Automatic annotation (TrEMBL):
Residue ranges with Low complexity bias: 19-31
Region of interest (Disordered), ranges: 1-40
Organism this protein belongs to: Schaalia radingae
Protein name stated in the entry: Thioredoxin
Domain of life: Bacteria
Length: 320
Protein backbone atom coordinates (compact mmCIF):
# COMPACT_ATOMS: atom_id res chain seq x y z
CA UNK A 1 0.00 0.00 0.00
CA UNK A 2 1.55 3.31 -1.03
CA UNK A 3 1.58 6.27 1.31
CA UNK A 4 -1.31 8.72 1.00
CA UNK A 5 -0.62 11.67 -1.32
CA UNK A 6 -2.06 14.97 -0.06
CA UNK A 7 -2.66 15.96 -3.68
CA UNK A 8 -5.27 13.20 -3.87
CA UNK A 9 -7.44 15.19 -1.51
CA UNK A 10 -7.66 18.32 -3.67
CA UNK A 11 -11.28 18.92 -4.56
CA UNK A 12 -12.09 19.84 -8.16
CA UNK A 13 -13.92 23.11 -7.69
CA UNK A 14 -14.85 23.62 -11.34
CA UNK A 15 -18.58 23.77 -12.02
CA UNK A 16 -19.96 20.63 -13.72
CA UNK A 17 -22.91 20.50 -16.08
CA UNK A 18 -26.28 19.64 -14.55
CA UNK A 19 -26.35 16.36 -16.50
CA UNK A 20 -23.36 15.20 -14.44
CA UNK A 21 -24.81 16.11 -11.03
CA UNK A 22 -25.03 12.51 -9.83
CA UNK A 23 -21.41 11.83 -10.75
CA UNK A 24 -20.38 15.08 -9.05
CA UNK A 25 -22.08 14.06 -5.79
CA UNK A 26 -20.28 10.73 -5.78
CA UNK A 27 -16.95 12.37 -6.56
CA UNK A 28 -17.51 14.89 -3.78
CA UNK A 29 -18.10 12.11 -1.24
CA UNK A 30 -14.97 10.27 -2.38
CA UNK A 31 -12.95 13.51 -2.26
CA UNK A 32 -14.15 14.09 1.30
CA UNK A 33 -12.85 10.66 2.30
CA UNK A 34 -9.56 11.32 0.52
CA UNK A 35 -9.16 14.64 2.37
CA UNK A 36 -9.66 12.85 5.68
CA UNK A 37 -6.89 10.37 4.88
CA UNK A 38 -4.59 13.09 3.56
CA UNK A 39 -5.20 15.22 6.63
CA UNK A 40 -3.93 12.34 8.77
CA UNK A 41 -0.38 13.24 7.57
CA UNK A 42 0.05 9.97 5.71
CA UNK A 43 1.22 6.55 6.85
CA UNK A 44 3.34 6.08 9.95
CA UNK A 45 6.47 3.93 9.86
CA UNK A 46 6.59 1.85 13.04
CA UNK A 47 10.35 1.59 12.79
CA UNK A 48 10.79 5.36 12.70
CA UNK A 49 11.83 7.09 15.88
CA UNK A 50 10.43 10.31 17.20
CA UNK A 51 6.90 9.82 15.91
CA UNK A 52 4.90 12.67 17.46
CA UNK A 53 2.34 11.27 19.84
CA UNK A 54 -1.26 12.31 19.43
CA UNK A 55 -2.33 13.93 22.67
CA UNK A 56 -5.22 11.93 24.16
CA UNK A 57 -8.36 13.73 25.16
CA UNK A 58 -8.85 14.19 28.90
CA UNK A 59 -9.99 10.93 30.47
CA UNK A 60 -9.32 8.81 27.36
CA UNK A 61 -7.03 6.40 29.23
CA UNK A 62 -9.02 3.28 30.01
CA UNK A 63 -12.12 4.52 28.14
CA UNK A 64 -14.40 1.80 26.77
CA UNK A 65 -16.31 2.84 23.66
CA UNK A 66 -19.74 1.40 22.92
CA UNK A 67 -18.97 0.66 19.28
CA UNK A 68 -19.17 -2.65 17.39
CA UNK A 69 -16.17 -4.92 17.83
CA UNK A 70 -16.45 -5.87 14.14
CA UNK A 71 -18.20 -3.67 11.61
CA UNK A 72 -18.48 -2.92 7.90
CA UNK A 73 -17.71 0.48 6.44
CA UNK A 74 -18.25 2.39 3.21
CA UNK A 75 -17.23 5.90 2.14
CA UNK A 76 -20.15 7.56 3.94
CA UNK A 77 -19.21 5.95 7.26
CA UNK A 78 -15.49 6.64 7.17
CA UNK A 79 -15.78 9.74 9.36
CA UNK A 80 -17.13 7.52 12.17
CA UNK A 81 -14.13 5.21 11.82
CA UNK A 82 -11.73 8.17 11.95
CA UNK A 83 -13.42 9.37 15.16
CA UNK A 84 -13.19 5.92 16.77
CA UNK A 85 -9.49 5.66 15.89
CA UNK A 86 -8.72 8.65 18.10
CA UNK A 87 -9.70 6.62 21.16
CA UNK A 88 -9.43 2.95 20.09
CA UNK A 89 -6.97 1.42 17.59
CA UNK A 90 -8.73 0.40 14.38
CA UNK A 91 -7.67 -2.35 11.99
CA UNK A 92 -9.06 -1.88 8.48
CA UNK A 93 -9.30 -4.85 6.11
CA UNK A 94 -10.02 -3.89 2.51
CA UNK A 95 -11.38 -6.90 0.64
CA UNK A 96 -13.39 -8.09 -2.32
CA UNK A 97 -15.37 -11.20 -3.19
CA UNK A 98 -13.20 -11.31 -6.32
CA UNK A 99 -10.15 -11.99 -4.14
CA UNK A 100 -9.80 -15.66 -3.19
CA UNK A 101 -7.52 -14.77 -0.26
CA UNK A 102 -9.89 -12.20 1.27
CA UNK A 103 -12.17 -14.74 2.96
CA UNK A 104 -9.41 -16.55 4.86
CA UNK A 105 -7.75 -13.28 5.94
CA UNK A 106 -11.04 -11.85 7.21
CA UNK A 107 -11.77 -15.06 9.12
CA UNK A 108 -8.30 -15.00 10.70
CA UNK A 109 -8.63 -11.33 11.71
CA UNK A 110 -12.11 -11.90 13.16
CA UNK A 111 -10.68 -14.67 15.33
CA UNK A 112 -7.87 -12.43 16.59
CA UNK A 113 -10.12 -9.45 17.38
CA UNK A 114 -12.39 -11.71 19.45
CA UNK A 115 -9.40 -13.16 21.30
CA UNK A 116 -8.17 -9.64 22.14
CA UNK A 117 -11.58 -8.77 23.67
CA UNK A 118 -11.78 -5.12 22.72
CA UNK A 119 -8.11 -4.14 22.33
CA UNK A 120 -8.96 -2.87 18.83
CA UNK A 121 -11.85 -2.60 16.40
CA UNK A 122 -11.90 -4.54 13.13
CA UNK A 123 -13.43 -2.67 10.19
CA UNK A 124 -14.19 -4.62 7.01
CA UNK A 125 -14.24 -2.47 3.87
CA UNK A 126 -15.55 -4.00 0.64
CA UNK A 127 -13.65 -2.05 -1.99
CA UNK A 128 -16.51 -2.02 -4.50
CA UNK A 129 -18.64 -0.19 -1.91
CA UNK A 130 -15.89 2.18 -0.79
CA UNK A 131 -14.10 3.55 -3.89
CA UNK A 132 -13.11 6.74 -2.07
CA UNK A 133 -11.34 4.91 0.76
CA UNK A 134 -9.76 2.53 -1.74
CA UNK A 135 -8.34 5.36 -3.85
CA UNK A 136 -7.26 7.45 -0.86
CA UNK A 137 -5.22 4.55 0.51
CA UNK A 138 -3.91 3.74 -2.99
CA UNK A 139 -4.75 0.06 -2.57
CA UNK A 140 -2.73 -2.03 -5.02
CA UNK A 141 -3.58 -5.60 -3.94
CA UNK A 142 -6.34 -7.45 -2.13
CA UNK A 143 -6.79 -8.02 0.65
CA UNK A 144 -5.00 -4.98 2.08
CA UNK A 145 -4.86 -4.51 5.84
CA UNK A 146 -3.81 -1.32 7.57
CA UNK A 147 -4.30 0.26 10.97
CA UNK A 148 -5.85 3.61 11.77
CA UNK A 149 -4.47 5.07 15.00
CA UNK A 150 -5.28 8.60 16.09
CA UNK A 151 -6.54 9.25 12.57
CA UNK A 152 -3.25 8.10 11.02
CA UNK A 153 -3.15 5.20 8.54
CA UNK A 154 -0.38 2.67 9.21
CA UNK A 155 0.46 0.00 6.59
CA UNK A 156 0.17 -3.59 7.81
CA UNK A 157 0.17 -6.21 5.03
CA UNK A 158 -1.21 -7.10 1.61
CA UNK A 159 -2.32 -10.48 0.28
CA UNK A 160 -2.47 -13.64 2.32
CA UNK A 161 -1.00 -14.07 5.80
CA UNK A 162 -1.28 -16.54 8.65
CA UNK A 163 -2.04 -15.80 12.29
CA UNK A 164 1.51 -16.57 13.43
CA UNK A 165 2.81 -13.84 11.10
CA UNK A 166 0.15 -11.28 11.97
CA UNK A 167 0.04 -11.41 15.77
CA UNK A 168 3.63 -10.19 16.50
CA UNK A 169 3.22 -7.19 14.19
CA UNK A 170 -0.22 -6.47 15.62
CA UNK A 171 1.35 -6.37 19.08
CA UNK A 172 3.76 -3.72 17.78
CA UNK A 173 0.86 -1.71 16.38
CA UNK A 174 -1.00 -1.80 19.70
CA UNK A 175 2.16 -0.77 21.55
CA UNK A 176 2.56 2.15 19.13
CA UNK A 177 -1.06 3.12 19.77
CA UNK A 178 -0.38 3.31 23.51
CA UNK A 179 2.66 5.50 22.86
CA UNK A 180 0.56 7.78 20.64
CA UNK A 181 -2.02 8.21 23.39
CA UNK A 182 -4.70 5.96 21.87
CA UNK A 183 -5.45 3.91 24.97
CA UNK A 184 -9.16 3.15 24.83
CA UNK A 185 -10.89 -0.19 24.26
CA UNK A 186 -14.08 -1.45 22.71
CA UNK A 187 -16.69 -2.35 25.33
CA UNK A 188 -17.48 -6.01 24.70
CA UNK A 189 -19.87 -8.64 26.02
CA UNK A 190 -19.61 -12.41 26.03
CA UNK A 191 -21.59 -12.58 22.80
CA UNK A 192 -19.20 -10.15 21.09
CA UNK A 193 -16.17 -12.39 21.62
CA UNK A 194 -17.97 -15.65 20.89
CA UNK A 195 -17.16 -16.91 17.41
CA UNK A 196 -20.24 -17.49 15.24
CA UNK A 197 -21.03 -21.10 14.36
CA UNK A 198 -20.15 -21.82 10.72
CA UNK A 199 -23.33 -22.90 8.88
CA UNK A 200 -21.72 -26.18 7.81
CA UNK A 201 -21.16 -27.08 11.50
CA UNK A 202 -24.73 -26.56 12.65
CA UNK A 203 -26.10 -29.96 11.57
CA UNK A 204 -23.41 -31.87 13.51
CA UNK A 205 -24.04 -29.75 16.60
CA UNK A 206 -27.79 -30.34 16.31
CA UNK A 207 -27.25 -34.11 16.14
CA UNK A 208 -25.14 -33.99 19.28
CA UNK A 209 -27.76 -31.86 21.03
CA UNK A 210 -30.39 -34.46 20.20
CA UNK A 211 -28.23 -37.21 21.74
CA UNK A 212 -27.23 -38.84 18.44
CA UNK A 213 -23.49 -39.04 19.07
CA UNK A 214 -22.89 -41.58 16.29
CA UNK A 215 -24.65 -39.29 13.83
CA UNK A 216 -22.69 -36.29 15.08
CA UNK A 217 -19.40 -38.16 14.66
CA UNK A 218 -20.34 -39.13 11.11
CA UNK A 219 -21.29 -35.51 10.33
CA UNK A 220 -18.02 -34.13 11.70
CA UNK A 221 -16.05 -36.76 9.76
CA UNK A 222 -17.72 -35.60 6.52
CA UNK A 223 -16.87 -31.97 7.28
CA UNK A 224 -13.20 -32.83 7.94
CA UNK A 225 -13.10 -34.95 4.78
CA UNK A 226 -14.38 -32.02 2.72
CA UNK A 227 -12.05 -29.50 4.35
CA UNK A 228 -8.91 -30.91 5.93
CA UNK A 229 -7.95 -27.39 7.08
CA UNK A 230 -11.04 -27.00 9.27
CA UNK A 231 -9.19 -27.46 12.55
CA UNK A 232 -12.21 -26.47 14.60
CA UNK A 233 -14.13 -29.37 13.05
CA UNK A 234 -11.22 -31.70 13.87
CA UNK A 235 -11.36 -30.58 17.51
CA UNK A 236 -15.14 -31.01 17.60
CA UNK A 237 -14.83 -34.51 16.14
CA UNK A 238 -12.26 -35.46 18.77
CA UNK A 239 -14.46 -34.03 21.52
CA UNK A 240 -17.58 -35.96 20.44
CA UNK A 241 -15.55 -39.16 20.08
CA UNK A 242 -14.43 -38.66 23.67
CA UNK A 243 -18.05 -38.22 24.75
CA UNK A 244 -19.08 -41.34 22.84
CA UNK A 245 -16.34 -43.42 24.42
CA UNK A 246 -17.52 -42.34 27.84
CA UNK A 247 -20.93 -43.91 27.19
CA UNK A 248 -19.70 -47.10 25.55
CA UNK A 249 -18.54 -48.98 28.66
CA UNK A 250 -15.33 -50.29 27.11
CA UNK A 251 -12.96 -52.68 28.89
CA UNK A 252 -10.42 -51.18 31.25
CA UNK A 253 -7.13 -50.44 29.44
CA UNK A 254 -4.65 -47.61 28.88
CA UNK A 255 -6.95 -45.84 26.43
CA UNK A 256 -9.92 -45.89 28.81
CA UNK A 257 -7.76 -44.93 31.79
CA UNK A 258 -6.43 -41.93 29.86
CA UNK A 259 -9.99 -40.89 28.97
CA UNK A 260 -11.01 -41.05 32.62
CA UNK A 261 -8.06 -38.89 33.66
CA UNK A 262 -8.69 -36.41 30.86
CA UNK A 263 -12.41 -36.07 31.70
CA UNK A 264 -11.40 -35.45 35.32
CA UNK A 265 -9.26 -32.50 34.18
CA UNK A 266 -5.96 -34.34 34.70
CA UNK A 267 -4.67 -33.73 31.20
CA UNK A 268 -0.96 -34.13 31.92
CA UNK A 269 -1.58 -37.49 33.61
CA UNK A 270 -3.72 -38.66 30.68
CA UNK A 271 -0.97 -37.77 28.21
CA UNK A 272 1.59 -39.54 30.40
CA UNK A 273 -0.44 -42.79 30.39
CA UNK A 274 -0.74 -42.83 26.60
CA UNK A 275 2.81 -41.75 25.77
CA UNK A 276 4.26 -44.22 28.27
CA UNK A 277 2.25 -46.99 26.62
CA UNK A 278 3.51 -45.90 23.21
CA UNK A 279 7.12 -45.80 24.43
CA UNK A 280 6.88 -49.39 25.69
CA UNK A 281 5.02 -50.81 22.69
CA UNK A 282 6.78 -52.49 19.75
CA UNK A 283 3.61 -53.24 17.78
CA UNK A 284 3.19 -50.76 14.92
CA UNK A 285 -0.63 -50.93 14.89
CA UNK A 286 -0.79 -50.37 18.64
CA UNK A 287 1.61 -47.43 18.45
CA UNK A 288 -0.50 -45.86 15.69
CA UNK A 289 -3.67 -46.35 17.77
CA UNK A 290 -2.03 -44.63 20.74
CA UNK A 291 -0.64 -41.82 18.59
CA UNK A 292 -4.08 -41.13 17.08
CA UNK A 293 -5.70 -41.06 20.53
CA UNK A 294 -3.05 -38.68 21.88
CA UNK A 295 -3.57 -36.28 18.97
CA UNK A 296 -7.33 -36.40 19.52
CA UNK A 297 -6.88 -35.38 23.14
CA UNK A 298 -4.47 -32.60 22.10
CA UNK A 299 -7.20 -31.17 19.85
CA UNK A 300 -9.77 -31.25 22.63
CA UNK A 301 -7.40 -29.69 25.17
CA UNK A 302 -6.28 -26.88 22.87
CA UNK A 303 -3.08 -24.94 23.45
CA UNK A 304 -1.68 -25.29 26.98
CA UNK A 305 1.67 -25.89 28.72
CA UNK A 306 0.63 -29.52 29.32
CA UNK A 307 -0.08 -30.04 25.62
CA UNK A 308 3.18 -28.38 24.56
CA UNK A 309 5.22 -30.57 26.92
CA UNK A 310 3.40 -33.70 25.80
CA UNK A 311 3.92 -32.82 22.13
CA UNK A 312 7.68 -32.66 22.69
CA UNK A 313 7.69 -35.97 24.51
CA UNK A 314 5.50 -37.58 21.80
CA UNK A 315 7.88 -36.40 19.07
CA UNK A 316 10.76 -38.09 20.87
CA UNK A 317 8.77 -41.28 21.46
CA UNK A 318 7.84 -41.55 17.79
CA UNK A 319 11.52 -41.55 16.82
CA UNK A 320 12.27 -44.59 19.00
Amino acid sequence: MAESDPSMAQHNSQREPASRAAHSAEASEQSHVQRQVADSHGAVDLSASGVPAAAPADGDAGVQLNVPLIRDCDDAQFEDIMATSRTVPVLMALWSSRSLESSSVLSMLEGIVRERSGAFQLVKIEVEKAPGITRALQVQALPTVCALIGGRPIPFFQGNAIKEQVVPVLDELLTAAQQMGVTGRVAVSGEDVKAPVPPEHQHALDLEESGDLDGAIAAWEKIVERNARDHDAEAQLARVRLLERGTAGNADNDLDHADELFNAGQHAQAFDVLISALEHSTDDDRREELRTRILDLFRVAGSSPEVNAARRRLATALMI
